[in-house]
Specification:
With 218 residues, the protein is α/β, with parallel strands linked by helices. 33% of the residues lie in helices and 20% in strands. Helix 6 links the parallel strand 7 and strand 8. The site of zinc ion has 6 residues, from strand 2.
């Protein structure tokens, strides 16, 4: 299968982002995962659009942007401007999710919908055919380096069943606590894209860690 790996910039060295982005460029990573937080939807703040404009200039891989902010549709133009390939909005943060998804697609980006750990997959039944990806949070959003929530493996299977039942082309991405052990179980359950922050950037050799994750798809 074509498993995609998306290292998360949140765990990179903020004092030298250029070096870490160059490592991503020359690695087997498929996408670069970017976590934007507002201190309201999640209890943390990460980086904003001025920084990401430079990230976009340096990064040769598609940007997978994960918005952990309230009312994310408000920032559609900014997200487009930083060169996002995929714009992921939280189900819990959008009152008119269908409208937001349509607007993302009309702007030329791919549309992803993200579910917090306690939000059930069945709530996506009426939108699953309209989205390009579902991002399942396998930790509570806001911080890197947290412990993997075990229920995420069953949840991945449930989502895969829904996608097949509804004839949807949506990819399944999983984010939080991913390593070689949890990653293997997620791939077996149906995951198409794995996000990994700490496991990649805090490893001795991030390039070969990305390669090891990529090989879970072989
Ligand atoms: C958490 C973020 C993740 C985070 C994952 O809110 O959405 O993308 O960077 O980090 P790890 O892989 O360390 O759990
Ligand atoms: Zn994320």
């Amino acid at each position: 299968m074509d498993l995609k790996i998306a290292p998360s910039l949140l765990s990179a060295n903020f004092a030298n982002l250029q070096a870490d982005i160059e490592m991503i460029n020359s690695s087997e990573a498929d996408w670069l995962h970017i976590d934007i937080m507002d201190g309201v939807f999640v209890p943390n703040i990460s980086f904003g659009f001025p920084v990401l404009e430079y990230v976009n200039r340096l990064c040769k891989k598609p940007l997978d942007v994960h918005l952990m902010i309230t009312d994310p549709g408000k920032f559609l133009n900014e997200v487009k401007h930083i060169g996002a390939y995929m714009m992921n909005v939280h189900y819990e943060a959008c009152i008119h999710l269908h409208r937001t998804v349509q607007q993302i697609k009309e702007s030329g980006m791919k549309a992803g919908v993200t579910l917090n750990p306690a939000t059930p997959v069945c709530l996506l039944e009426d939108i699953i055919r309209d989205v390009d990806m579902v991002l399942l949070m396998s930790v509570n959003p806001g911080f890197g380096g947290q412990k993997f929530i075990e229920n995420s493996v069953d949840k991945t299977m449930t989502l895969k069943e829904l996608i097949l039942k509804k004839n949807s082309n949506a990819l399944i991405e999983v984010d939080g606590g991913v390593n070689l052990e949890t990653g293997k179980r997620l791939v077996d359950a149906g995951a198409d894209v794995l996000v990994a922050g700490n496991f990649v950037f805090k490893s001795y050799d991030p390039t070969s860690t990305i390669k090891d994750l990529k090989s879970l798809g072989i």
